[in-house]
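Table S4 entry, Alpha-D-ribose 1-methylphosphonate 5-triphosphate diphosphatase.
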Amino acid sequence: MDWHIQAGRILADQKLATRDLSVTNGLLTEAPARNVSVIDASGLLVLPGIVDIHGDSFERQIMPRPGVHFDIALALRDTDRQLVANGITTAFHGITVSWEPGLRSVQAAEELISVLVGIRDNLACDTRVHLRWETFALDQMATVMKWLALTPRPILAFNDHTTGSVLKGTIARKIGQMAERSGLNRTDYMSLLDQVWSRRDEVPMAIEALASAARANGNVLLAHDEASPEDRVYFRALGARASEFPLTVETAKVARQKSEDVILGAPNVVRGGSHNGALNAAEAIKAGLCTVLTSDYHYPSPLHAAFKLSSPGGSDLPLIWDLVSANPARAAGLNDRGSLKAGRRADLILVNAEDPAHPHVVATMVKGEIVYSSRLLRVRSAIGVSIAAE
């Protein structure tokens, strides 16, 4: 179905203005098609769809409690509904491949990816893979390398939660949670951790080999939880184009000095700070040290973070919205979305922001198809017959 959106406040060219917007064959166009259905968007904001390049809330659908597992297709379909209801039109599922057994094992990742590939075309959100490789998962590297060739290409992020666990850093306090997730008791988990740590001298060569394979294949590379400016310089040399959740202000500064993206979590903004003592995202944004916000562990947060960061009246919303749409699209190498320009995918959302503290997604459109509506939209066909889009 082709569309003509009328009377909405449309975010385009870094400003909000009341005008019309047309969608033909799934793309944004300058003028409406001959036979078109009209959406009356008066009183609503029309915004580019949210591009979420790091989200792992779906894990709670698969395992809502330790040891309690649900069917993966069921979990992913429920996650899909959450995504589009919260204005997310492109989502990279953060699938962790670890040396742990259980939820983040290579076997669990293999099953998840297999199911996702099988149902992806039937999901409303454009759902992709963000491979989070634990750098001590040496025996799993060959499988990760195979997944680099998935279509569409996954993002690859380098993660190291092992060093922090062993050296009693910021991750050490999560040992109990990590053991529960793996299905092991604390004693057995610590024993396995010791075995993994004993191979630490093999890790740098493995990182370089996987980075080389990813660069050759055209995968976007990210580095997660960089602890120092030296880490940023190291992963930059390997081709990691962005710093994902850097642990220090100095690390974020080193990234921004090279105009690299710095990725932080939107829940950090919504809650007023990090839950684990990391950078304050709102402060980082004000200082120019954060360019991308992601859902991380809470899908409603990108939408709500953008409005929380906006000044009263929302005059700066166009610039802030880039944090959840245009900038993550750029960081992920997706140049066909993230802004409402003619020729780009018609990925957009209609938002009721009468109460900016609680913005409400009225409808979500992915590649020209309305995939979610929270209520009946005011829609009429070209010949004036009223219809409802749900």
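Residues 203-217 form the longest helix (15 residues).
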